[in-house]
């Protein structure tokens, strides 16, 4: 039953100055009044009221009650927020009091799900709110905050309206089957369709950036022992997380952390140096490094420039071919001993090469620039452009685009309008999977279950 009144702690679990218990549903105010001794009985919306908080009739804390009357609240239902002291035990006790006063415990994401069901948010805005909460980097925050404000949703609405225009024009011609479609009508449908196609195409392309920012790029740092992989790893993370020594074979297990470089989220793996070894543990490390190469989307191949290249370096270069790889020619604070021939080979096999010193940090900015260019961060304004950032949205945009291209082909080859309409309607229902009611309950539940309780 949707109108069951729910409650949860909406602030993070832990000790803090203040915590907020949120209550939503028809009985929200009744529950709040039962659990608080307030000075006034007349609670007006959007005002804060001080009072004592009771549990089983006993005062356990004091705090502020704010009431938001439906539909002008986050969930669209009656909402009460009680701000109490932010200790772990006291917030638990206040929540308990809300539950014993008639509320049920909210499940993960239930407040946001209700906001979606009550039409306060589109699905992509709701997803973006989850991403705002989960954001670990500045780019993630900028992107998710703009999508939470509805930038993607309004772009989708705009495309949808244009699609409807195309469909209504095409239908108008079906209604008068005896007349041929006039040149003017064809060109009107054609222009409208071109706009829809180019908009869908830029949304589709934006996923390259959206994914790199939100989900991150699976990246492996590879190289021979002592090339400086762990030093590069630490430099990119800005912390000494991996052990660095001049002893070959220091890194054995794969270590993974997330770094933001040039706005791109790198899901970085530092690996063991790849070479022939008889050490049992190191051998396992080398195998793991090799399998990381397979499962990564981007390779950062580290070469030690202070010594002549070896067969191991050549092997690393071979690993790079056919993959997206950036060569990091490390230790540039020392004299370069790599042969020109080897550097030329790097140029042919790697996407880019960067001269770098993990010791001094030289070259880090260039790497940031290369990554930002690779993922089009310079072309996209994360705070203002509509960007696709998850696979669900991408799949729908992709299919909608294909269907529109089919409609365009039908129009170009002079097919009957019903064929054009058929493709356009398929595109429309696919687009409606992003924000509109075409989304199945299963998908909606899966999206909201990823949220934390209290959101
Ligand atoms: N001079 C200099 N030494 C470096 C640089 N990067 C790493 N090293 C040194 O090279 C050795 C091996 O580094 P490490 O990061 O452990 O290499 P890994 O085995 O590839 O992980 C250590 O002694 C580092 O201090 C650099 O840019 N310049
Ligand atoms: Mg290492």
Radius of gyration (CA) equals: 29 Å
Walk across the major sheet and give the strand order. 3-4-5-6-2-1-7
Biggest sheet statistics? 7 strands, mixed
**What would CATH call the class of the largest domain?**
Alpha Beta
Order of helices and strands: EEHEEEEHEHHHHHEHEEHEHEHEHHHH
* Overall shape: flat
- The secondary-structure class comes to alpha/beta
Q: How many separate domains make up the residues?
A: 3
Please outline the helices and strands.
Layout: E1 6-9, E2 18-24, H1 28-35, E3 36-38, E4 48-55, E5 58-68, E6 79-85, H2 88-100, E7 104-105, H3 110-117, H4 123-134, H5 138-148, H6 151-175, H7 183-214, E8 217-223, H8 229-237, E9 255-261, E10 264-270, H9 280-295, E11 298-304, H10 311-320, E12 324-330, H11 340-349, E13 352-355, H12 364-374, H13 391-412, H14 417-435, H15 441-449
Parallel strand pairs: 1-7, 8-10, 8-11, 11-12, 12-13
Antiparallel strand pairs: 1-2, 2-6, 3-4, 4-5, 5-6, 9-10
Helix pairs in contact: 1-2, 4-5, 6-7, 6-14, 7-13, 10-11, 13-14
Bound molecules: guanosine-5'-diphosphate and magnesium ion (MG).
Guanosine-5'-diphosphate binds at residues 223, 225-231, 244-246, 250-251, 273, 330-331, 333-334, 357-359.
Structure in words:
This protein is α/β, with parallel strands linked by helices. The protein has three domains: 101 residues, Gyrase A, domain 2; 145 residues, tRNA modification GTPase MnmE domain 2 (Four Helix Bundle (Hemerythrin (Met), subunit A), Up-down Bundle); 159 residues, P-loop containing nucleotide triphosphate hydrolases (Rossmann fold). The chain is built from 15 helices and 13 strands. The strands form two sheets. Strands 3-4-5-6-2-1-7 form a seven-stranded mixed sheet. Strands 9-10-8-11-12-13 form a six-stranded mixed sheet, with helices on both faces. Strand 12, helix 11 and strand 13 form a beta-alpha-beta unit. It is flat. The relative contact order is 0.12. The mean pLDDT is 92. Guanosine-5'-diphosphate (GDP) binds next to helix 8.
């Amino acid at each position: 039953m949707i109108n069951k009144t729910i409650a949860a702690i909406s602030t993070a679990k832990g000790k803090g100055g203040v915590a907020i218990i949120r209550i939503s549903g028809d009985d929200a105010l009744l529950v709040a009044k039962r659990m608080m001794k307030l000075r006034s009985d007349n609670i007006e919306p959007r005002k804060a009221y001080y009072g004592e908080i009771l549990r089983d009739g006993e005062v356990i804390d004091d705090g502020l009650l704010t009431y938001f009357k439906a539909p002008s609240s986050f969930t669209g239902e009656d909402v009460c927020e009680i701000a109490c002291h932010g200790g772990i035990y006291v917030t638990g006790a206040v929540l308990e009091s809300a539950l014993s006063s008639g509320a049920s415990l909210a499940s993960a994401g239930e407040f946001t799900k209700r906001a979606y069901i009550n039409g306060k948010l589109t699905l992509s805005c709701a997803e973006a709110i989850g991403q705002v909460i989960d954001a670990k980097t500045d780019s993630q925050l900028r992107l998710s905050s703009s999508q939470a404000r509805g930038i993607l949703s309004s772009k989708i609405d705009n495309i949808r309206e244009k699609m409807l225009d195309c469909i209504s024009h095409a239908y108008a011609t079906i209604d008068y089957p005896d007349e041929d479609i006039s040149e003017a009508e064809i060109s009107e449908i054609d222009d409208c369709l071109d706009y829809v196609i180019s908009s869908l195409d830029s949304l589709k392309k934006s996923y390259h950036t959206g994914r790199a920012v939100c989900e991150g790029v699976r990246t492996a740092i590879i190289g021979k022992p002592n090339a400086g992989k762990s030093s590069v790893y630490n430099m990119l993370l800005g912390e000494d997380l991996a052990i660095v020594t001049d002893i070959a074979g220091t890194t054995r297990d794969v270590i993974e952390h997330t770094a933001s470089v040039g706005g791109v989220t790198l899901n970085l793996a530092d690996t063991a140096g790849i070479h022939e070894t008889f050490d049992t543990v190191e051998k396992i490390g080398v195998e793991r490094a090799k399998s990381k190469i397979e499962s990564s989307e981007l390779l950062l191949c580290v070469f030690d420039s202070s010594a002549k290249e070896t067969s191991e370096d050549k092997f690393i270069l071979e690993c790079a071919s056919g993959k997206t790889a950036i060569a990091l020619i490390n230790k540039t604070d020392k004299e370069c001993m790599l042969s020109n021939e080897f550097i030329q080979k790097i140029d042919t096999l790697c996407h880019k090469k960067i001269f770098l010193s993990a010791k001094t940090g030289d070259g880090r900015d260039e790497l940031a620039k290369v990554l930002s260019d690779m993922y089009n961060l310079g072309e996209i304004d994360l705070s203002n452009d509509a960007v696709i950032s998850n696979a669900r949205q991408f799949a729908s945009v992709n299919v909608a685009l294909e269907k529109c291209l089919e409609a365009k082909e039908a129009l170009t080859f002079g097919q009957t309008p019903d064929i054009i309409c058929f493709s356009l309607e398929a595109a429309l229902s696919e687009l409606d999977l992003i924000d509109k009611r075409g989304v199945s309950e299963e998908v909606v539940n899966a999206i909201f279950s990823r949220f934390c309780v209290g959101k």
